[in-house]
Amino acid sequence: xxxxxxxxxxxxxxxxxxxxxxxxxxxxxxxxxxxxxxxxxxxxxxxxxxxxxxxxxxxxxxxxxxxxxxxxxxxxxxxxxxxxxxxxxxxxxxxxxxxxxxxxxxxxxxxxxxxxxxxxxxxxxxxxxxxxxxxxxxxxxxxxxxxxxxxxxxxxxxxxxxxxxxxxxxxxxxxxxxxxxxxxxxxxxxxxxxxxxxxxxxxxxxxxxxxxxxxxxxxxxxxxxxxxxxxxxxxxxxxxxxxxxxxxxxxxxxxxxxxxxxxxxxxxxxxxxxxxxxxxxxxxxxxxxxxxxxxxxxxxxxxxxxxxxxxxxxxxxxxxxxxxxxxxxxxxxxxxxxxx
Length: 340
Ligand SMILES: [Zn+2]
Ligand SMILES: [Zn+2]
Ligand SMILES: [Zn+2]
Fold this sequence. Notes:
This protein is mainly alpha-helical and 340 residues long. The protein folds into two domains: 20-243, Cation efflux protein transmembrane domain (Alpha-lytic protease prodomain-like); 253-336, Cation efflux protein, cytoplasmic domain (Alpha-Beta Plaits). The protein contains nine helices and four strands; from the N terminus they run αααβαααααββαβ. It has helices at 20-31, 35-71, 74-99, 115-142, 153-174, 182-211, 216-243, 253-261, 296-312; strands at 109-112, 268-278, 281-290, 318-327. Strands 2-3-4 form a three-stranded mixed beta sheet. Helix 9 (296-312) links the parallel strand 3 and strand 4 (318-327). Helix 3 packs antiparallel against helix 4 (115-142), helix 3 (74-99) packs antiparallel against helix 6 and helix 5 packs antiparallel against helix 6. Residues 270-271, 287, 326, 334 line the site of one zinc ion. Residues 50-244 form the Cation efflux protein transmembrane domain. It holds the Pfam family ZT_dimer. It is a multi-pass membrane protein. Its main location: membrane. Residues 1-43 are annotated as: Disordered.
């Protein structure tokens, strides 16, 4: 049936590496290893890394509470509030990473893989408001609307240095996997924000000690917030993209239709949906019109070729496909769906 119509990936499509997930997908294929085992190893590493960075952050958190209570430093009390958001973002990321290790069951048929997107969205919102708050604070302090709170520069310097060391340790722990999924991205963004914050604390306490000028703290704090807010918004946008079931970056539904239509034996394609369950699992469903005389063996072969097309011909590998084969005169209900 049909003429010979071999189809190949569009030029350049599989050579460019637009996203981290396409890199992991391809390296998995290249190694020929079981992707499930790879993923489980990666998930165990994520839990370990998040536990470590939570430990570092937790130590500073406790130290700052003790320091703030001991010295009655308002600046430290303010930073304790900030640390509380750090700890909660990291705890949420850790809980998500632990739950994501669970296997699918009859209630959670995808496992908990979508959870990374939810924690990333939550972390991004928290970071966004922390950034916004810092900008407002900076403006208010610079305009004199709020009395400056830096009253113990030496202590501030000491905690700045300790905090920076702890945050650098967290960065080193997470840097290898911050592109693996959105959950890790949120945690990494959080510790980067903190490290920059520690740098500001150190610099402003040095400036305060040397010159007595206390405006530096507000300016630098505002600058960091201006750097973090766009990243938080991008993370929020990326996670909303998954939550709204949009086609992931690197997969264009029109392109998928064009490809699948060229697979030998396909008469037409409609009702195509492409979306991501999580940052490393893209799914595709499509209705495929075939010749009514097709045998079961032929249709099995067709499904195999379409699955190969979906998993190999796009910058992001589509790993979960569901194809509904139907004869050309199949019932009217399909007309109610969007035809692509
Ligand atoms: Zn193809
Ligand atoms: Zn399935
Ligand atoms: Zn249909």
